[in-house]
Amino acid sequence: DNLEDGGSDAILSAQQGKVLDRKISTLKSGGELKILLVGSSHGMNTISQFPWIAYKSGFNVTVGNVYKGSLTLQQVAASITNSTSIGGWFKVFEGGAWVSKNSTMFDDVITYTEWDYIIVQRSASDDDTWTDEQSAALDVIIEQIKKATTNNPTIVFNTGFADPDSSQMNQEEASNTIISSATEMKSEYQLDIIPVATAIQNARNTSLGNLGNYYGSESKKNQLCYDSMHLDYGIGCYVAGATLFEFFFRKFGWSVLTAEGYGSYDEVKTFVDTLVDSGGDEGSSNAYTEPNSETMKIAKYCAIAAVNNMDVFSIKLAEKWPQVSRKKPL
Questions:
Q1: Taking CA 281 as the corner, what is the angle to CA 279 and CA 283, rounded to the nearest 5 degrees?
Q2: Closest residue by Cα to residue 187 from 142, 157, 162
């Protein structure tokens, strides 16, 4: 696979150009990049490590997560239409930890700060389709964001990822369906897609696929998960976080290869636990596989390859180190 395709430049739509110029200027002058994700548990898996990776690598970020189990676009739209709370929680990354906020009313969340990006996504239960109902819901969400905000945030779409399966063929088929249905969405709305599904499938096709504790710590089929649906909060979520880092910071000329900081097990585990409820399996050691320098390196390969080409699963990532920018944060 040619991981160099696309280099470190993002192809951006013309209508986003002026907004992006402002964001680049802000970031380079020491300002913050502000990103919000509204979604289900797969969204929480996607966002959980991203701000930590950025924070420990010297980038100034504010990241928010609205989480409710099995949250769909239709449920978000209904909360807007009915002026009701989304439910679940709203937490914001502040000073190295996730901090709970009071309201999950959609308008309160999207106006909590001037978000640069707002990430929307489907639920794990319907991420393999793009239906008229999902499209109508996205219409409501986009319209409300335009109506309630004053800074013109960029709306982007997270794919989510396929549930684990002992068969690589079944996994790739499920991942392909998620990606192809997200592509249908893009043809209708022109929203950029965060290819987490591709990155996770890339990782499952490497030695990282052995990690996690879904089938037991000694299994070779754990597929980066600790149960039948959710990513391991260590290396599994690191792959997703690296993908977000590459997707967003590539626009400013930086690569996930810049993300060299991480921290000790206790440090990171404490950070993750401030987002994740610790009452169930999520808080146990079975749900956290500590990343190391080698597994993080492979995770970065997987993220870069996914952002370069969402439609291709890479299987030789351990054999090649991509040659992309190694710029340091300003």
A1: 60
A2: 157
Strand arrangement, sheet containing 193-194: 97-100, 89-94, 61-67, 33-39, 117-121, 154-158, 193-194
Q: What's the rounded Cα separation, in Å, for the pair 280 and 81?
A: 33
246-269 tens-digit pLDDT: 999 998 888 898 887 788 888 887
Start-end of H helices in the chain = 17-28, 41-47, 50-56, 73-82, 106-110, 132-148, 168-189, 196-204, 235-249, 265-273, 293-308
pTM: 0.88
Nearest to 126 by CA among 76, 87, 201: 76
Q: What is the DSSP string of 139-162?
A: HHHHHHHHHH-SS-PEEEEE---P
Find tokens 């893009």 and name the residue: 186
Confidence of residue 49 (pLDDT cuts 50, 70, 90): very high
pLDDT in tens, 276-288: 864 444 445 678 8
How many CB atoms are located within 10 Å of the residue 107 CB?
Answer: 16
User: Is there a contact between 189 and 138 (Cβ–Cβ < 8 Å)?
Assistant: yes
SS3 233: coil
Q: Which contacts qualify for 263-268: CB closer than 8 Å, 24 or more apart? A: 263/52, 263/56, 265/290, 268/49, 268/52, 268/234
